[in-house]
Specification:
Blueprint (H helix, E strand, L loop, with lengths): L1 E4 L7 H9 L2 H13 L4 E4 L8 H13 L6 E4 L3 H10 L5 E5 L3 H13 L3 E5 L10 H17 L7 E4 L12 H11 L8 E5 L10 H14 L4 E4 L4 H13 L9 H5 L3
Parallel strand pairs: 1-2, 1-8, 2-3, 3-4, 4-5, 5-6, 6-7, 7-8
The structure holds (6S)-5,6,7,8-tetrahydrofolate (THG).
Length: about 260
């Protein structure tokens, strides 16, 4: 499981304040804690309150790159913010994200090629969030077709079915999980899959348990990557154990210690 730490997001009060006050220490501590807990990459999002997202994203990236060389996922719905971030990123970037809308695909796929970035494709369009599995697969096929048209490797594409909170979209959970499995059979070579895990538990009072249970079910459906809170050690242990049960790691009595990434 490829783990992208979600905590550098201006939506969190401490990070929002750090961006405003240009407090490097808070951002750098958050980056290192996530990496030391097993994050393979870090999501970077200025948050909805940023007045200067083009410069804020560059400040965040440069601040994080002073303490770690892990890949960074540029998380913004604005193409200009992603483009601004790409200019200062050192290691192989992850673009988070494009939608299935042609005006986004036509700009972001060439940018991903230019910067040799991985690309996250949300199965969403200007018509809104899909209501079922078929709509998700239709949007996934549009994104894959655009990648093929631009000669962008589908293996560098991570399709995201859009995870919704279980307390508002309970009837869709099964479709979301099945989409993860079926995205893989749309094309050969097949795309990778990713979710924003914490969405599933928003507004509930058993967040950690819901996150952990959904993650294990998604891994059973073939999930490749997740944006999540790596400081939740029970969540990380569940992901390691799910990989073990799927025979991706060799069992030993101390497998948790052995496979926790340092
Ligand atoms: N897919 C992709 N990228 C994404 C998402 C996705 N990026 C953003 C988001 N979804 C993933 N990141 C988060 C980060 C935090 C929370 C949820 C998802 C979260 N935050 C607390 C809340 O809203 O309750 C905030 C708590 C606080 O303010 O302190 O749950 O789906 N590709």
């Amino acid at each position: 499981m490829f783990i992208i730490g979600e905590l550098i997001n201006g939506m969190y009060a401490n990070i929002g304040r750090a961006i405003k006050e240009k407090n490097k220490a808070i951002v750098q501590k958050c980056a290192l804690e996530q990496v030391n807990s097993g994050a393979d990459a870090l999501d970077v999002n200025c948050g909805p309150a940023s007045h200067n997202p083009l410069s804020d994203i560059q400040w965040l990236i440069e601040t994080i790159q002073e303490v770690t060389d892990k890949p960074l996922a540029l998380d913004s719905s604005k193409i200009e913010v992603i483009e601004s971030g790409l200019k200062v990123i050192k290691n192989k970037p992850i673009i988070n994200s494009t939608t299935a809308d042609s005006q986004k695909l036509e700009k972001l796929i060439p940018l991903a090629k230019k910067y040799q970035a991985k690309l996250i494709g949300l199965t969403i369009s200007s018509k809104g969030i899909p209501q079922n599995k078929d709509q998700r697969l239709e949007l996934a096929a549009l994104i894959i077709a655009a990648c093929i048209d631009h000669d962008f490797s589908v293996e560098d594409l991570y399709l995201d079915p859009i995870v919704l909170p279980v307390n508002v979209a309970q009837a869709q959970m099964k479709d979301i999980l099945e989409s993860i499995k079926e995205f893989k059979i749309i094309s050969e070579p097949c795309p990778k899959t990713i979710v924003g895990l914490s969405n599933v538990s928003q507004g509930t009072n058993t967040r950690s348990l819901i996150n952990r249970t959904f993650l294990v079910m998604a891994i059973a459906n073939g999930l490749d990557a997740a944006i999540l809170d790596p400081l939740d050690s029970e969540l990380i242990d569940a992901a390691i154990t799910a990989d073990l049960i799927l025979n991706k790691q060799i069992y030993c009595n101390s497998y948790l210690q052995a496979y926790r990434k340092k």
